[in-house]
Amino acid sequence: MNVLVVLMPISIGLGLAGLAVFVWTLRARQYDDPEGDSVRLLDPRWDDRPMAPPKTHEAPGPGA
Amino acid sequence: MSTLATCPGCAIPPRPVPAETIRADLVLHLPDIHCAACIASVETMLAEVPGVRSARVNLTLRRAMVETDGSVEAPDLIARLAAGGHRASVFEPGVRTGQSPEMRDLASRIGVAGFAAMNVMLLSVAVWAGAGDVTARMFHLISGAIALPAVAWAGQPFFRSAYRALRAGRMNMDVPISLAIILASAVSLAVALGSSDRPGWFEAALSLTFFLLIGRYLDMAGRHASRSAAAELAALEVPQAIRLANGAEEIVPARSLAPGDHVLIRPGDRIPADGRVIDGDSDLDRSILTGESLPVAISPGADVAAGELNLTGTLTLRVTRAGAETGLARLAAMVATAEMQRSRYTGFADRASRLYAPAVHALGAMAFVMWWSLTGDPIRGIDVAISVLVITCPCALGLAVPAVSTVSTARLFRAGLLVRSPTALERLAEVDTVVFDKTGTLTTGELRLGADTDPKALALAAGLARGSSHPLSRAIAKAARARGISPAPVGALQEKAGRGVEGIFHGERIRLGRPGWAGAMGAGGGSVQLLDGAGKVSSFTVDEVPRPDAVEAVQQLEAMGMRVTLLSGDAPDSAARLARRLGIAEVMGGVSPEGKHEVLARMAAEGRRPLMVGDGLNDTGALAGAHASMAPARAVDAARSLADVVILSEGIASVATAVSVARRAHGLARQNVALAIGYNLVSVPVAFAGLASPLVAALAMSSSSLAVTLNAMRARK
Question: Could you tell me which residues belong to the region Disordered (chain A) (predicted)?
Fold first, then answer.
């Protein structure tokens, strides 16, 4: 049963990592437009050079 | 316009949603976009318009958020998009442009509760599987360390709402929920700290929080921002007027006008107050006030009403009624009253939970008292009381209705319908009569020239029509374009307000205008006549253009067993003509705005449940008074904000879709509630008998929640 001392923190740590990722996706507004994000992948406009990152999460990205 | 309670049983409205954080100066609705290419072309087009800082399309919501420097307005952007083949319209300002901060907050609480529930569940499985003394106690302590902070934070929405309700001396569904969560956590903590090997309730408290938060999230997602329609009606009133005093013109606020004042009204202005014309001729567009499809010619001595649009000539008006006395202001007051009456409508879920909350408390208390007196052991009593509370807690009930309405609302959105009121689906499902407005609802609001026109006369008429922006002139120009006839080169065009257009063609004076001015009075029929150089009179008949799917809409509704009625403010004979064309048996024409409201009120008194579909200011009373209401996206703001459902697509056939989806949703919601109550009927006696272990309680709760969610998914089809 001593193995629990190692396993328990690992399991809870993994869970916490998942939670942290979820909160991050939420803050990064990844659930605002799920349909649009899925097709934006096919958008040819940014094939040659990447889009400039949005300045803050508050403003919409420089969409074009 | 509706109850804003966060949960069905909660009588206290939540705090107002803070302003949206995405900066969007203009929000455009794009009903037809569907792919990556659409996103790219819309964003590129919008970004090319000078004055646009950035534009971003949200495909899920079919919207474009545009940030501007203030120099461009929505019509410019819509025109640019139309040129590129994208249909767009301005969205009501103030609508949600993404997940609101409140929804993100709820989502993080769901995440935390879900994480904690899963981990504690894992630990509990070990205990149930027979982990030994020391291990079991250690697992309890670890569960407690995870569960207590998680419950304390994630459960806050329930605790706050329950506290507010209790402080106001009221009872809502959050009171038993909070009680169950707190009692279960506290007892489990005592068990974990003590030496007893009783099972704990941590996983029950957490999964309770988790499922209830999901229900609340769905509930919030289903609601849309709705503004008070009464305030919008007031906003439509003309703010300024040109008053004539001692021969001088001065600009004054419209509300400072008094009866007896003389007011100057230029072409393109709205009439600021009710009054009588003392000088000038013009044509007035009354369609938004009365539903009349053709503009009305007026001359000195005519009475005009506030809100009408002056089209062609300059008028001088003597004010007879101003401010709160005008017809428009009285209409606004009527709408406000009707709106208040409708907001008292209580939904099915509301009625169910009002009975439910006291019943849950009574059951819990009974269980406690019974087991305490039977066994003499208060701990045993609390244990059973918790299991009763946990099992009866409305996880399934709280999910049952929001899940169905979320899925159905999404289904309607895909069909081009925006549901604006939380109780709209339920009221739509009960509808048995559909009342249509004519102008702008069943018709497109445009005019079309009759087919039997002489091409030469049409060429002349189109040449004259260039000199006027009157709707009839526009119809003639359009007909000429459609038939490939180029307008005759008519010179010296002169618009005679209230009469027509005059011009010179090959040295001869020709006229296009109202019968009696252009041609001889009574010679031929039609709405417009042309007098050519030889003195020959040709008549043109104009007709309204019904929406292409109007016949289909009427047939579908009748097939569903609805009574369809046409209720128009336009002349009875033109209303009857359209009704015949569309196959509507019941028709009422020439109805005043107040009259429309009365017709709807009479239907309600007869026990009918009417659905009003209308777009004009004259329909607002009827929209507010109807059991449910719909308006096309092009309707005036006041009508749109009163409507339960806004039709975003061009057609009108979606009215039938809306009703059938609503009926199905209502059926599913009832099934779900029955399912949830059924689970309780089985599990409550078990819990009452003291046989429900935490395992059984958790299983019952999860499986009933899962069952109602899966059932709700059937609304997608």
Answer: 34-64
Per-residue pLDDT at B96: 42
| Domain of A29, in residue numbers | 2-46
Nearest residue on chain A to B112, alpha-carbon basis: A19
Contact A36 B67 (CB under 8 A): no
Comparing CB atoms, the residue among B58, B115, B119 nearest residue A36 is B58
CATH number for the domain including B57?
3.30.70.100
For chain B, the straight-line distance linking the first and the last C-alpha, in angstroms and rounded, comes to 30
What would the DSSP string read from start to end of B264-318?
EE-TTPBP-SEEEEEE--EEEE-HHHH--SS-EEE-TT-EE-TTPEE-SS-EEEE
Q: How do residues A5-55 score in pLDDT, each as one tens digit?
A: 888 889 889 989 999 999 899 888 888 787 888 888 887 777 777 766 554
Interface of B with A in 60-89 (CB under 8 A): 60-61, 65, 67
- The answer to the question of residue B531 being in a domain is yes
Q: In this structure, are B438 and B583 located in the same domain?
A: yes
pTM here is 0.69
- Regions of chain B where pLDDT drops below 70: 1-25, 91-100, 131, 195-199, 221-240, 288, 291, 334, 337-350, 352-354, 393-396, 451-452, 516, 518-527, 637, 694-695, 717
User: Measuring CA to CA, which residue among B182, B192, B203 is closest to residue B386?
Assistant: B182
B500 and B621: one domain?
no
In a domain, A53, yes or no: no
CB neighbour class for B178 (10 Å; exposed up to 12, middle 13-18, buried from 19): buried
Question: Has B437 been annotated as catalytic?
Answer: yes
Tell me the per-residue pLDDT of B672-714, one tens digit each, with 9 for 90 and over.
888 888 888 888 888 888 777 766 777 777 788 888 888 888 8
Predicted local confidence at residue B273, as pLDDT = 82
> Which domain range does residue B35 map to?
26-90
B578 and B546 in contact (C-beta within 8 Å)?
yes
Asked which of B523, B540, B557 is the last residue of a domain, the reply is B540
Q: What is the pLDDT of residues B156-208, one digit of tens each?
A: 998 998 888 888 877 777 787 888 888 888 888 887 787 656 667 788 888 88
Residue B430, chain A, CB below 8 Å: the answer is: no
CB-based contact B107 A31, cutoff 8 Å:
yes
State the DSSP code for B10. -
Nearest CA in chain A to B114: A19
Q: Among B147, B567, B174, B587, which residue's Cα sits nearest to residue B361?
A: B174
Does the beta-carbon distance from A60 to B22 stay under 8 Å? yes
Residue B10 pLDDT:
42
Number of domains in chain B: 5
Give the pLDDT of residue B519. 62
Could you give the number of structural domains in chain A? Answer: 1
Contact A64 B54 (CB under 8 A): yes
SS3 B519: coil
| Res B266: pLDDT | 79
Q: Does any domain span residue B270?
A: yes
In a domain, B128, yes or no: yes
pLDDT recorded at residue A5: 81
**One domain for residues B535 and B464:** yes
Q: Residue B65's closest chain A neighbor by CA?
A: A60
What phi, psi does B320 have (nearest 5°)?
-105, -35
Helix H segments across B453-539?
455-465, 471-482
Angle between helices B694-713 and B378-392 (to 10 degrees): 10
* Residue A19 maps to a domain: yes
Q: Is residue A16 part of a domain?
A: yes
Window 42-61 of A: residues touching B by CB (8 A cutoff) are: 42-45, 57-61
8 Å CB contact between B535 and B571: no
ipTM of the complex: 0.73
Report CB contact under 8 Å: A60, B67. Answer: yes
